[in-house]
Design brief:
Length: about 150
């Protein structure tokens, strides 16, 4: 499996989420990844970031986004936090500067691109680590549901 380069990954998010500009794609990708990093256990976050382009992984792990926005929302207290879809959507929306319904659609688009960019085993681990409501945004969970 060839790893996606940064420009390719951002381009795929832009196309999949039907965003008008590259900056929007960078912003939403960073927002989703930073929120995901808050929700996942540290070890799993590390595995995910290791499979992403270094520039993208660095923006998540150093706590800044493209515009230098803080990585954590006002209620952040550490990685592996327990929160559901409503809080997830709220954090992505806050970081990306979009309404929550738009944040959910964009999150699903980012997850679809991630599904193609990282090892299938990692996507299965992500699905298992997330609560069912967030997990339904992942392509692996949606495919499993469709097969039932």
């Amino acid at each position: 499996m060839a790893a996606l380069q940064y420009d390719e990954l951002i381009g795929k998010v832009q196309a999949r989420a039907q965003l008008s500009g590259r900056g929007d794609a960078e912003r939403v990708t960073g927002a989703v990844l930073r929120t995901l990093a808050e929700r996942l256990p540290d070890g799993l976050t590390g595995h995910l970031l290791a499979q992403l382009p270094s520039a993208l992984a660095a923006s998540v792990s150093d706590g800044t986004g493209e515009a230098g926005t803080p990585a954590h929302g006002p209620e952040h207290s550490g990685s592996g936090e327990r929160f559901g879809l409503t809080a997830f959507a709220g954090r992505v929306a806050w970081r990306a500067g979009v309404p929550e319904d738009v944040a959910l659609r964009q999150t699903a688009a980012v997850f679809e691109v991630l599904d193609a960019a990282v090892a299938p085993e990692l996507m299965e681990k992500l699905t298992a680590a997330l609560p069912a409501d967030i997990g339904k945004l992942l392509p692996t969970a949606r495919a499993r549901e469709a097969g039932e």
